Each structure stands twice: as structure tokens, then as C-alpha cells.
Amino acid sequence: MPFAMPGHPFEEMGPPTWKPAPRVRQQYPSSRIPSNTKKQPTYTKKRLKETPYFAVFEPFEIIYCQKCKDLVPTDSIAIGTHLQGPCYAMSPGPAVEKAALQARALLDTPDDKNMIRRRGELYARASRSDMILPEVAWLRPATSGYFCLLCGQPRRNRTVLREHMRRVHDGEKDMWGTTLVQTFRSAGAEFLTFRVRRRG
Ligand SMILES: [Zn+2]
Ligand SMILES: [Zn+2]
């Protein structure tokens, strides 16, 4: 019989009879503490996957505009719309269509016109305990933020994290920690926040 209780935050720590002592509950479960010796995801290859206007940010498999660094849906229509916007101000026509198809071909993922669903997937990826990236030099600088000790989700704002604890974790109050975060924006609004560490 397996020891793990599926979905329980302490499932990796022992048999179902194991109960965390109150002191331990204030800490990040040791099996999920991000370790620097673990292989960290990198994005050094991002330059290999780019077009004149867009590039791929490998850790999240997202396409971003090389000018404004906004994330765009992996959908050639949305990419074409961005090409005609303030960043590149291209006129509608074959050049836009060609560039949009090129950019779309950077990623082998389904169209994500539904950015809300896509956001859920990206949140899940950003929540992995080993997903702590080196600070990304070309995004807005890292700032201090918060993350949930139960599921790993990072947020810039403590009120927003509290709301997450209330909604997802039944109002659990103490299970959060501090972390450095950076954020991808989309259409000018904050879209995806992820944990980073300082370089060097
Ligand atoms: Zn742009
Ligand atoms: Zn959580």
C-alpha cells in the first residue's frame, strides 16, 4: 500500500500516520526545499529560438515580444495583432502574416487563445519548487514577493497571496514565505510571476 496521500502537501514526508509537529509546520517541508545542487532550469538557449520580433522564453515555453517583453498568446492572429501595434507598427498584409507564422512556429504547443486556461498551466509550472530561475536581466528587476508553502505559487503582493490561501487552502494563515520574484506582463498587465535568485 502506498504511503502517499494524493494531493496532501506533506505526502512525500512519510506514511499517512505521520503528523507534522507544530514547529515543523512553520517550515517549508524539507522534501520540497529547493536545493541549489539540483539542476536548475536555464534559458541560455533562448537566443537560438527567435525571430526578428519575438523569442521564446524556454522555462515557460512562452513567446514574448523582443521590444516590449510582453508575453503574447501562441496564436498567429494574436502575434499578427501585436506586430501591427505600437512595437512594430507594421501594416496589415503578407509581411505580417509571414512574420506571425514564423513566430508561431517557434513553439510546438497548441494555440492558447484562451489565455486564462494557459495562465493556469503557467501558474502550475511556476509553482514547482525547483523552478527558481536566475534573475532575468532584460525584465523589470526582481522585487521581494511571497510564495505559498503549500503549493509553491509565488505572488508579488501579500494581500493577493492571502486571498490565495483563503480561497485554495481553507484560510490557512501561516504557510507562506518570502522570495524574490519577477513578472511577465501581457497586454500591459501583470500575467505571470515566478521566483528568481540573484545572479552570481
Ligand atoms: Zn511588443
Ligand atoms: Zn497555495
TrEMBL record:
<feature type="compositionally biased region" description="Polar residues">
    <location>
        <begin position="27"/>
        <end position="43"/>
    </location>
</feature>
<feature type="domain" description="C2H2-type">
    <location>
        <begin position="146"/>
        <end position="174"/>
    </location>
</feature>
<dbReference type="InterPro" id="IPR013087">
    <property type="entry name" value="Znf_C2H2_type"/>
</dbReference>
<feature type="region of interest" description="Disordered">
    <location>
        <begin position="1"/>
        <end position="44"/>
    </location>
</feature>
<protein>
    <recommendedName>
        <fullName>C2H2-type domain-containing protein</fullName>
    </recommendedName>
</protein>
<keyword id="KW-0863">Zinc-finger</keyword>
<keyword id="KW-0862">Zinc</keyword>
<keyword id="KW-0479">Metal-binding</keyword>
